[in-house]
Amino acid sequence: MRIEENPIASGVSERGSAQTLASAWNRLLERLPDDWSHLYAEVELRPTELYEDVALIVSPLNPARCDGRAAFRFRVGHSFGYGAAPEMVRRSLERLDEARIPGRLHLLQLLSEKLPVETQGPVWRLGGRSL
Known about the structure:
This protein is of the alpha+beta class.
């Protein structure tokens, strides 16, 4: 198993710009190694964004709030395990784009070469918490 941290962060998707959160997600996936199995990502929002509206849109991702900031984190399983499917992430980010909610997508952690042997996926420990 290989663990990579912070290899990719996208730019900001601004209202009226060509860049969207969905296109940032597509670019992120293009840059991942073929054998990636799980990732942990964050979408940083404008401080003025109504988090409750965003949480409703991205609820299929099981978002976790970040330190009271206008941001949420979520897990993704490439083909197995705990976390949203990459296609569900894309659709949820498209829905944010459709609602004209800009943000910045960050890849926080990436696991590669992980196989499902007696587990549904990895357990990450961040800040003393299991994710």
